[in-house]
Amino acid sequence: MDANRRAGWSGARWAALILAATAAIAVVAVVILAAFPWEILRTRAEARLSADLGRPVTIGSIERLERFSLRPTVIVHDVRVPQPAWAGPGSLVTIEALRTRFGVLPLLVGRFSADRLEVAGARIDLVRDADGRESWSTGEKDDDDGGPPAIGGLIIVDTVVRYRDARRDRSFTVAVVADRREGLRISGTGLVRGEAVRISASGAAVGETATSQAWPFRVKIEGEAVGLTAVGRMDRPLDVDHFSAEVTGHGRDLKLLDAIIEAGLPATQAVALKARVRHDDREWRIDDLAATIGRSDIAGSAVVVKQGRGSRIEGVVRSKQFDFDDLSSDEGRKRGAAKRLIYGKRLIPDTAIDLRRLARTEGTLDVTIDELLWPGPSPLRTLKAVLVLGGGRLTVKPLTIGLSNGTMHGEVLVDQRKGGPVLTLSLDLEGAQLLDLAPDTGVDGRLAGKLRLTGAGRTVRQAVGRSSGTVTLVARDGQLPARTAVLLGQDVGRGLLTGKDRLATLNCVVMALDVDQGVARTNPLLIDTSRSVTRIEGTIALADERFDLVLRGAPKQASVLRLDVPILIGGTIKTPVINVPPRSKSVGSVLRMLGRAVAGEQGALAAPLDCDALVMARGVTLGGAQAAEIAE
Questions:
Q1: What long-range pairs does 325-329 form, CB within 8 A, spacing at least 24?
Q2: Which of 216, 271, 428, 499 qualifies as a FRET site for 325, CA 20 to 30 Å off?
């Protein structure tokens, strides 16, 4: 028993000695930390910062005020961080004095906690070049989500920040002040794409509330041509990666406003917007968006997530009225007007479809437009589409365009995976009316069609101008001016005598175009009316929309004056030109036509076409009830 007691007592004594030694070591460590001469770390701090930033950082001196404290006050003098070589000479950061009082013990677990941070005489010069290189960044991704360090108080005096951005064509110079009474204040001036702006920002005093509480802030960029205001709360003081804000903005065009918000938006008509924004690390959430662009309005929501160097967007956009012409700036409209002067009016739009700028963007956008606005009359009334972007492809499917009567639906694909964009159009026209598409002709009837085209080009016009495929249009059971009907049969006599108000029956129009490398060839175009049958053959060059067609018609009744030569159709889709051969206008030609009529030598009368068989052969379905035949 005595031996066991002695052994137990010996073990207890050793345990006590170990605990005492550990406590002594801890006390000694605390004493060392409390009296640590921080100035001896200057050289090591310079080396570490230089290695991290890839440039020689210098520190004039480090001074400790208290001789013994676990919350020492340290002043760092004359800090200089040079610009990277590509940004030119000069300093990225110079600081005359940086003063802080911090807790020593939290450093043992890798946490920095400061009672206050004071900055005096700082000059910060931020540069971004046209390629996107940033002088304040090493180019390496920082996945640390620790947020800003906990600071009990922030004081900034005599500090100026200069920013120059060649990529976005913007710059500013601001003074920064912070104290415990009025908080953080920023003010200065700048340029956004050459437009003068005033810049101001403010935040609550850092340290007046707990560091875990929300921190109110306000940012304002104000100018006549462009401006943006954000009022909100960061989750913690200076935590720019976690905040909520109410945002309003305006711009002479959207591209000018985009120089501030950096969303890759195009030049447009004047824009005004407001929205609720939430930012969490790599995610931006936009709710209650309400914007106007020219005379168009937009409402909706979106979530944007940064993925490496790209982004993913999921959004919903609604518009009560929208004018696609508002997506062109004043300069863009001038260029369009200049093109029209040179090339004339065009049906096929010159809309850009190059996806290079969206190579790192993917996502889905659901779009609904209640009313489409146009500069002049148009049968296009509404639009509903889902846009899916990713992997070098843009798919618009399903796509539904509401017309004055009927719909156009199908899908549009832009595929840029193998170089330049390739456009594929697959659209069906149903339940339409011919008069809606050509109101000036007075020709009406139920209309349906199919369009299947594929072509390469950086705009819709280029791609269609090089495309191959088929275009089919069929019209049935309508009416047209009787004078037009007899002239389609080259019946000149009745064309002169038929009253303007009289109508004829349109039995069918059947147009089939075989398209090869941008040249559409009629296969053929047939028109059957109660007065005549017409056959049109030839080509349409889709690149410039130019006609090279020949019209041959025959009346269904004997004619007094019947034109016996074909009619040439030139011009363009928007401005066709009817060319009657000059010799058919002479007195001799008229006498010959009269002679043939008297002698009964005119060509055979036209036999009605089998419209049902022709329409069925084209695979197009016509909806709606058949119109009653027109009494003549």
A1: 325/294, 325/374, 325/375, 326/268, 326/269, 326/293, 326/294, 326/295, 326/296, 327/266, 327/268, 327/269, 327/293, 328/267, 328/268, 328/269, 329/253, 329/255, 329/267, 329/268, 329/269
A2: 428
Structural domain of residue 383, as residue ranges?
Answer: 350-441+449-464
User: What's residue 609's pLDDT?
Assistant: 93
Compute CA distances 395 → 101, 401, 416, whole Å.
Answer: 58, 16, 11
Clarify whether residues 478 and 592 are in a common domain. Answer: yes
435/520 same-domain check: no
Measured CA to CA, the distance from residue 99 to residue 582 in angstroms comes to 96
CA distance 590 to 562: 9
Flag whether 398 is in a domain. Answer: yes
CB atoms within 10 A of CB 599: 8
Instruction: Give domain status of residue 379, yes or no.
Output: yes
For residue 279, tell me if it sits in a domain.
no
**Shared domain check, 379 and 456:** yes
What local confidence, expressed as pLDDT, does residue 74 receive? 86
Q: How many CB atoms lie within 10 A of CB 433?
A: 19
Which segment of 137-146, 396-405, 546-555 scores lowest on mean pLDDT?
A: 137-146
pLDDT digits 0-9 by tens, 104-116: 666 665 566 667 8
Structure-token match 């064509």, residue found: 169
Q: Residue 578, SS3?
A: strand
**Bridging pattern class, strands 283-293 and 296-307:** antiparallel
What's the maximum distance between 2 C-alpha atoms anywhere in the chain? 154
User: Can you spell out the DSSP letters for 483-527?
Assistant: HHHHHHTTBHHHHHHS-TT-EEEEEEEEEEEEEETTEEEEEEEEE
The H or E element containing residue 15 is helix 2-34
Whether the CB-CB separation of 503 and 479 falls below 8 Å is answered with yes
pTM score, whole prediction = 0.80
The residue that leads in pLDDT, 589 or 512, is: 512
Tokens of residue 66, six digits:
């208290």
Q: How many domains does the chain have?
A: 2
